[in-house]
Amino acid sequence: MNKKGIEALVGFFVLLGIAALVFLSLKAANLSSFSGGETYALTAKFDNIGGLKVRSPVRSAGVTVGRVASITLDPKTYQGVVRLDMQKSMQFPADSSARILTSGLLGDQYVGLEAGADEKNFAPGDTIKQTQSAIVLESLISQFLFSKAADAGSTPPPAASTANGGKK
Amino acid sequence: MNVLAAIGRYVIDCFRAIGHHAFFFWQLMRTLPASLKRPYFAVVQVHALGNLSLLVILSSGLAVGFVLALQTYYALVTYGAADSVGLVVNLSLVRELGPVVTALLFAGRAGTSLTAEIGLMKAGEQLAAMELMAVDPKSRVLAPRFIGGIVAMPILALLFSAVGILGAYLVGVQLIGLDPGNFWSAMESGVDVRRDLGNGIIKSLVFGVICSFVAVYQGYEAKATPEGVARATTRTVVISSLSVLAMDFVLTALMFSTR
Amino acid sequence: MPSDFLRTNPDHASVDPLIAIDHVTFGYDASRNILNDVSMRFGRGLVTAILGGSGCGKTTVLRLIGGVHPVGKGSIRFDGQAIDTRNAAQLYGLRRRLGMLFQFGALFTDLSVFENVAFPLREHTDLDDTMIRDIVLMKLNAVGLRGAAKLRISEISGGMGRRVALARAIALDPEVLLYDEPFTGLDPIAMGVTANLIRKLNDATGATSVVVSHDVQECFAICDYAYIMAAPGVVIAHGRPEQLNASEDPQVRQFLRGEPDGPVPFHYPAPPFAQDLELRGIKA
Which of A13, A56, A85 should we substitute to test contact with B (largest number of B Cβ atoms within 10 Å)? Predict the structure, then answer.
């Protein structure tokens, strides 16, 4: 009677809430682009991670293939250790390189993966050997000024030091 | 000297009030296990507080969505960033406006009805009669209403946000003529389920606890006269609203600070 | 007619009280005592009345029996055990054995008549719906309202509401029935019905009833024993109705006869009338 009617209405109310949640998660947020699916872990070491954050995307050719799982500092080499969760369906050659890039001019930073030519693929838990750190604005400016000053003088500019990290 | 004594007395009264609230909260918590064994009463309250608030929440959500879309469009179009209207509206709703505005509306509509109902039950000696029948009114009357409010609030907040986004879609795409593909894809890439939606749900749960507790407390402690009940309902709205806004600041600072 | 019943004439000194109030002094705050050294005994199976003017503390006595407030001095004993308001288990047991009728019914306005009477059964027993239905209809029949079971509380009159509240109070067949001003605001027929019910219920179930009222006539018609209280919370007389009627005490006589002026003054204390009217040179 009345009791059943109220329970039905409340059930409808809760379903409405769940529908709203599903709509918001799928249509209006990034759940569908990385829902479920198995992942495998890769590690990359950078001299400078710049503005990279946890859950930043990992992209190859612009397509999102993974997420940053954690960022820590290696106490021995003082390098940033970035752990990546890669989609299991995407395998990369063992000599692929990772760079920290910026989306757009002033957007969020992400890890860009460039596929190499090796026949073997990364095994889960492998470390990406070739990495390039984020571009720090101050180094860029000082590099620019330095090269300008070198042009003005007669001494050849010293080897430009874009921080190349992780070459072991 | 008298002023000092008065200030001292006021401060001590504040402490006593906080202690009384805490003790009441503790007693309410203790009755929760027993009242969860008879969920029918809480279900009735979810209907009274949630279903019957749908009209207010949905229409407010729609209106807020309309206005947000318009305002962000006017602001962003000068920078050529009109495609981000959907993203900005979504983030504003899911992170802030959904939980907060829903809580304020809830305090006004459902909170006052709770306080008035319980206050009038107290005035009509119904609560005293229950006590003398060896039925704990906190367990039978207050706890189901408290639980009902906590269950209803996140659902209402989600509905508010969802309807708001739909409203923004109507204004942005149908009315202004923004590109629907960009509208939705900007959202999909920019809104994180765990950080934005999840934190928004946590906020609305916290607000649900606050609003329900204040409403139930004020009703139970109201003076059993018409003026007493009237004053209690006003206090419910004021205290709920201020607490929600203060808590919102604290939660936002905790959740969305850039680490 | 209530006066037809077989009035029990106990020798009050030897009666075995179900409830005993011993030298109780009580006040809601320290500045003012509602009850001052009050002692009462309520015999098993008897209808005992507490009479007195407004503000003499009669309703407070009922509240203390129900264990609502702790007493400052003295003790209240229920079936031999002192009531300790901090002992939740004891209070629960005590309240399961008593039923109280509030002054205006205190019915649950969101429930129907049937559900109001069923409330104690649903809360305290595991009976199934058919049994509850039978018991509720029996109780409603006892008060003459079986036909009103489906009505909502807003649809019934004040007198009917009191009877529903009475049915609710007896739902669990309590040993003690407390009545707070059951005759106030009722028409003569309803008053007669209520008085009749109180007496018949008490006799039929063997319960102990305590009736708080200021309606002397109705109370004396149905009670076995009565206590008369006066303003600062004291008992000024007690005895069987015929003993009280024959009393020579001026306070008792003023109350029983309803005389407007006497030991309880008509005027609330005030300065002389001439002073209030600011007349000079004229004696009031």
Answer: A13
What Rg value do the Cα atoms of chain A yield, rounded? Answer: 23
- Give the amino acid at C16: D
Between CA A96 and CA A104 the distance in angstroms is 23
Entry pTM: 0.80
Residue C47 CA to residue C211 CA, distance in Å, equals 7
Instruction: Please give the Cα distance from B26 to B60 (Å, whole number).
Output: 35
Task: Give CA separation, C177 vs B232, B243, C82, C223, in Å.
Answer: 34, 46, 19, 13
Cα–Cα distance, B77 to B73 (Å, whole number): 6
Least confident of A59-68, A145-154, B111-120: A145-154
Largest CA distance in chain B: 71
Prediction ipTM score:
0.82
Q: What is the pLDDT of residues B30-48, one digit of tens each?
A: 999 988 888 999 999 999 9
* Residue in chain B lying closest to C88 (CA): B134
- Per residue in B196-229, pLDDT tens? 889 999 999 999 999 999 999 999 999 989 999 9
Nearest to A127 by CA among A60, A46, A52, A63: A46
Q: Which residues of chain B are within 8 Å of residue A25 when distances are taken between CB atoms? A: 193, 197
* Average pLDDT per block of 10 residues along chain C, 284 residues long: 51 71 85 86 91 85 89 87 86 91 91 94 92 94 90 89 92 93 87 90 91 90 91 87 86 82 77 80 55
3-state class percentages of chain B: helix first, strand second, coil last, to nearest 5: 90, 0, 10
| Set of chain B residues whose Cβ sits within 8 Å of the Cβ of C95 | 131-134
* Mutation site, B133, B136, B139, interface C, largest C CB count within 10 A: B133
C190's torsion region: left (phi>0), alpha (psi -120 to 50) or beta? alpha
In the sheet where C98-101 sits, what is the strand order? C98-101, C176-180, C208-213, C47-52, C225-230, C234-239
Total length of chain A: 168
Interface with A, mutate which of B41, B47, B165 (most A CBs under 10 A): B47
Question: Chain B contact for C104, CB < 8 A?
Answer: yes
Query: What distance in Å separates residue B89's CA from the closest CA in chain A?
Result: 11
pLDDT in tens, C21-76: 888 888 887 788 888 888 999 988 999 999 988 878 888 899 899 888 888 788 89
Which of B47, B152, B187 faces A28 most closely, judged by CB atoms? Answer: B187
DSSP state of A123: P
Contact C166, C112 (CB under 8 A): no
Task: Report d(CA A79, CA B153) in Å as an integer.
Answer: 46
**Mean pLDDT value of segment B175-193:** 84
Q: What is the DSSP letter of C111?
A: S
Query: Which one of B125, B135, B140 has the shortest CB-CB distance to C102?
Result: B125
**Residue A120's CB: how many other CB atoms inside 10 A?**
10
Where do the DSSP E strands lie in chain C?
Answer: 17-26, 35-43, 47-52, 73-78, 81-82, 98-101, 176-180, 208-213, 225-230, 234-239
